[in-house]
Design a protein that fits this description.
With 307 residues, this protein is α+β, with helices and mostly antiparallel strands. It folds into two domains: 33-134, Metal Binding Protein, Guanine Nucleotide Exchange Factor, Chain A, CATH 2.170.150; 146-292, Peptide Methionine Sulfoxide Reductase, Chain A, CATH 3.30.1060. 23% of the residues lie in helices and 26% in strands. The protein has seven helices and 17 strands. α5 (212-222) crosses α6 (248-263). The longest helix is centred in the first third of the chain and has 18 residues, at 3-20.
C-alpha cells in the first residue's frame, strides 16, 4: 500500500468511526462553527443580533440543519425579548423537553434534534399564552412568494399526509377537515357523516421545487378517484375524493388531469371545488403513520404514463 493509499485508508476508518458514533451525519446541511455552537451544542446567540428578529414577511421558517418546516409567519409576534418569538409551531415540528440547566424548557427540531431555543408560558402575549423564543441562527426563511398551498381529500388522511409529507418540495402536510357546514368539527362528528366534511390534507409546497401538477398526479395515483364516497373499506362521505383548489390555475390543472383519466375510461368521482375553511384535525391524527409505526394505507398506481 503506497503513502497516498494509506492516507485514504486511515481517513475512511476515522470517518466510519464518527459516523457509527453519531458525531457526523452526512445527510444534514453543513454548519459553520457559530451555527454548530447553537444548533448542536445548545448555545444562545446574543440578544438583538438575529437576522430574523424583525422579519414579519409572509413565509415559512425552516430548520437550518435539516430543512424541516418549523414555523409559519402568521404565528410570529413582537415580544421585545431580543429573539424571534412565535406562539406556536407547525404541528409536531418542534419537540419540547427540559433544558440541561434544570430551569428552562428547551425546544428542538423534531426531525434532527437541533437546538432552537426555549419555550415560555404564562406571559399573556397572545391567545396561546406561549412564546417560542428561537435563535435566528437555527433557522432559514422561505419567502411566501415561493410557496403555494393545496388541499387534497383521498380517503383516510393518515396515508395521504404521510405520502405528501415525504415528497420532495413539500414543506409540510397536515391532516384536517374541509367541505362541511359546522365550525371546528371534531373527529367523531365528521365520522358521523352529519357535518359534510371530508378528511383533507393541507399541503404547503415550494413551487420552485415541485409543481401543483406533480402533486395532483400523485394524488390521483395514490387513491382510487373512481370510488364514490369512500376508499377501500373506509365508506362514508367523509372519505370522498376531492381537490379543494386555491387558485384558478389549480382548478384548470385538476380538470385537465380528470379529463385525461376520463379519456382512459375512468369514471372519475373526484369533486373539484374552491377551498373553504380548513379545520386542523386533533393532534393524534398528525404524523400518525410516523408516530404509530402503522402501515401506509395508500399505494401509488400509475395512471398517467405507459410503461
Amino acid at each position: 500500500m503506497n503513502g497516498g493509499s494509506k492516507i485514504k485508508y486511515f481517513i475512511s476508518i476515522i470517518l466510519s468511526f464518527f459516523l457509527l458514533n453519531g458525531d457526523i451525519d452526512m445527510s444534514y446541511n453543513k454548519l459553520s462553527p457559530e451555527e454548530q455552537s447553537v444548533i448542536i451544542n445548545g448555545a444562545t446567540e446574543r440578544p438583538g443580533t438575529g437576522i430574523y428578529l424583525d422579519t414579519f414577511t409572509n413565509g415559512v421558517y425552516t430548520c437550518k440543519r435539516c430543512n424541516a418546516a418549523l414555523y409559519i409567519s402568521d404565528t410570529k409576534f413582537k415580544a421585545h425579548c431580543g429573539w424571534p418569538a412565535f406562539d406556536q409551531s407547525i404541528t409536531n415540528a418542534v419537540t419540547i423537553r427540559p433544558d440541561n440547566d434544570g430551569l428552562r424548557t428547551e425546544i428542538i427540531c423534531t426531525s434532527c434534534g437541533g437546538h432552537l431555543g426555549h419555550v415560555f408560558t404564562g406571559e399573556g402575549y397572545t391567545d396561546t399564552d406561549t412564546r417560542h423564543c428561537v435563535n435566528s441562527i437555527s433557522m432559514n426563511f422561505i419567502n411566501g412568494n415561493e410557496l403555494e398551498t393545496a388541499y387534497f381529500a383521498g380517503g383516510c388522511f393518515w396515508g395521504v399526509e404521510h405520502i405528501f409529507d415525504n415528497t420532495n418540495g413539500v414543506l409540510f402536510a397536515e391532516s384536517g377537515y374541509m367541505g362541511g357546514t359546522i365550525v371546528n368539527p371534531e373527529y367523531n362528528e365528521v365520522c358521523s357523516g352529519s357535518t359534510g366534511h371530508t378528511e383533507t390534507v393541507k399541503v404547503v409546497f415550494n413551487r420552485n421545487t415541485v409543481s401543483f401538477r406533480d402533486l395532483a398526479i400523485a394524488f390521483f395515483e395514490i387513491h382510487d378517484p373512481t370510488q364514490v364516497n369512500g376508499q377501500g373499506v373506509d365508506i362514508g362521505t367523509q372519505y370522498r375524493s376531492a381537490v379543494f383548489y386555491t387558485t384558478s390555475a389549480q382548478q384548470d390543472v385538476t380538470n385537465e388531469l380528470i379529463s385525461f383519466l376520463q379519456s382512459r375510461d375512468l369514471d372519475v368521482a373526484t369533486e373539484v371545488i374552491p377551498a373553504d375553511n380548513f379545520w386542523l384535525a386533533e393532534d393524534y391524527h398528525q404524523n400518525y403513520i410516523r408516530k404509530s409505526g402503522a402501515e401506509v394505507c395508500h399505494f401509488r398506481v400509475n395512471r398517467f404514463t405507459t410503461e
